[in-house]
Amino acid sequence: MRYKKVEDVIGIDISKDKIQQILSCLGMTIKTLDDATIMVNPGTNKHDVTREIDIIEEILRIYGLNNIPVHSNIKSTLTYTQQPDKNTVKESICQFLSSNHFHEMMGLSLIESKHFAGIKEMDPSSFVYINNTSNVHLDILRPDLLISGLQSVAYNANRQQNNVKMYEHGKSYIKKNGGFEEKECITVFISGKNQEDTWYSKDKEDASFYDIKHIGLSVLQKTGLHTWQENYETKHFGLEYGMIFHRGDLELITTGKVSPALLKKAGIKQNVYYAQIDLTNILKAIDGLKFSVKEISRFPSMKRDLAIIADSKTTFKEMVDVARRTDKKILKNIRLFDVFTDKNKVGEGKKSYALSFYFENTEKTLSDKDVDTVMEQIITSLEKQLSVFIRK
After folding, report:
1. Interatomic CA distance for residues 165 and 194, integer angstroms
2. CA within 13 Å, CB half, 46
3. What's the CA gap between 213 and 228, in Å, rounded?
4. I need a labelling partner for 215 at 20 to 30 A (CA). Which of 10, 58, 181, 194 fits?
5. How big is the CA angle at 146 (ends 140 and 150), to the nearest 5 degrees?
6. Can you give the pLDDT of all 392 residues of the chain as single tens digits?
7. Is residue 309 located within the same domain as residue 244?
8. Does residue 29 lie within any of the structural domains?
């Protein structure tokens, strides 16, 4: 035990004679090695004293905590992490997925190149080939995480595990511009029922594209992003259809339904929905992102419901954009709570949307006249810009 260590831990300079007296009274044998160090044998009755810090704890216990003066200055070690921290963001996303009943999986970085044969979007010259003497079939580093993930889905389906919710954190590898490029992603797979059947709730619905889209939206919000663009023209080789969440040129999350051709090739007989979260681009998007705090309004909000008949190609997002452009002061939120289609009641190629509009003013109590004026403006804008019909 070092005398200097005792001073560093306890915070005061206890004399060597006092330390040796305390240890002797505790029945410990002391052997002096030099002026700064002693060897202590705690004896057989102190089986839990095995380290230097344990000896110091015994000294402090006998010396008395009340005899340690409180210093006017406090020493502390500050830790600093560059923000945004990749591991923190990754762990946050993975914990969110795990808490929503997704199981984490781990696929091999090595894969057979034959799985990509016939896929025109995958250029064999971009593959990173490996001279794998232990298994000649695993000849490339995976250029995309979808194929290896589908192998896991197929493995589970072949063992009567048809309701699959899995995710994987991993990298893909390609040759590009004379060098190598690694892409770090989190991939998500949903197949089968969206929830397991239980005794109190059976006949669950099959998973759909909107389940995987919801995961994409939730992940973006989890990372602190609240504004992004949506593009329904995905170019991913393995998707029949889908959409991309992006901010400018940064593609953040790609979601969609895996193509039937790829499912057949993997031996999967049910639909699979897929999301690919680009961690590198997510970090770029949230770099420098600041959050703001504001006081909750002291004044009550008001709500108006509106039933709209629109063309089936008209989306809820288009209606939201028109409404928000019309009023930016008191319109706080828009919620879609019903969609209805019936060619006999609403017409061929038409949909009925039921929307709730929420209004609030942080400076005063709203009157019916204030809200009705804005609602008339929103209705006029919807009729002119989207050619909708208001059901009354």
Report:
1. 8
2. 16
3. 14
4. 181
5. 100
6. 999 999 989 988 999 999 999 999 999 999 998 999 999 999 888 889 999 999 999 999 999 999 988 877 777 778 777 778 889 999 999 999 999 999 999 988 999 988 888 888 888 889 999 988 888 889 999 999 999 999 999 999 999 999 999 999 999 999 988 899 999 999 999 999 887 777 776 667 889 999 999 999 999 999 988 888 888 888 889 999 999 999 989 999 999 999 999 999 999 999 999 999 999 999 999 987 777 788 888 899 999 999 999 998 898 889 999 999 999 899 999 999 999 888 888 888 899 999 999 999 988 999 999 999 999 999 999 999 999 988 87
7. no
8. yes
Q: Are residues 8 and 139 in the same domain?
A: no
Q: How many angstroms from the chain centroid is the CA of residue 221?
A: 8
Give phi and psi for 187, each to the nearest 5.
-105, 145
The distance of Cα 236 from the centroid of its chain, to the nearest Å, equals 21
What is d(CA 182, CA 186) in angstroms, rounded to the nearest whole number? 13
Whether 123 and 236 map to the same domain: the answer is: yes
Tell me, yes or no, whether 173 and 47 share the same domain: no
- 276 & 310 share domain: no
d(CA 306, CA 371): 13
CATH code assigned at 34: 3.30.56.10
- Residue 201 in domain: yes
Structural domain count of the chain? 3
pTM of the model: 0.67
**Residue 143 · residue 125 · CB < 8 Å:** no
| Alpha carbon distances (Å) from 213 to 161, 174, 244, 376 | 23, 27, 10, 33
CATH number, domain with residue 317: 3.30.70.380
- Give the range of the structural domain holding residue 214, as residue numbers without chain letter: 86-286
Domain-located, residue 183: yes
Q: Are residues 267 and 315 in the same domain?
A: no
